[in-house]
Amino acid sequence: MELQASAALIIIDQQKGILHPRLGRRNNPHAEENMLELLALWRRTGRPVIHVQHLSRSADSVFWPEQSGVDFQPRFMPQDGEWLIQKAVPDAFCATRLEGRLREAGIGQVVIVGVATNNSVESTARTAGNLGFDAWVAEDACFTFDKADYFGTPRTAEEVHAMSLGNLHGEYATVVDCARILAAG
């Protein structure tokens, strides 16, 4: 595994709303620490950092623009020179300029972290892979929540996370842990 000097770190939906208790039980309690380690590496090495912010169309969403949940958590506040992509659907490529900006900058590799694994992370990674980007998903820098499956069977956040990563690995993205990315950095 080779981490390119131009690899972009895409941090998805690290907004205040994702910490709301009404979202339920989550997995991977150290995900944010891992995201911050990767962010520190990217900033230290001058690689591109892309912050994705969800602006929900639904007033009952934790990411509704009319309340503080839409704001970035202070520890994930974009710095000067870092990109901001605002989206209204889970996929960070859909109806945004993300693909065009990556191509204009000559970026062919992306490392994706954030929330929720089975939602915005998975949909963004699928599109990245389908568009031909070398997409990596840092499995221990993502998390999700308990969720019932289609048939109503309750699934733990760990199960939802694992299935989502299984959907991605090998077909749309390479799923790795942060230690491997940091070692490649």
From TrEMBL:
Keywords: Hydrolase
One Pfam family in the UniProt entry: Isochorismatase
Chain ranges of the Isochorismatase-like domain: 7-157
Any one GO molecular-function label of the UniProt entry: hydrolase activity
The keyword Transferase is annotated on this UniProt entry: no
Domain of life: Bacteria
UniProt keyword annotation of Methyltransferase present: no
UniProt name for this protein: Cysteine hydrolase
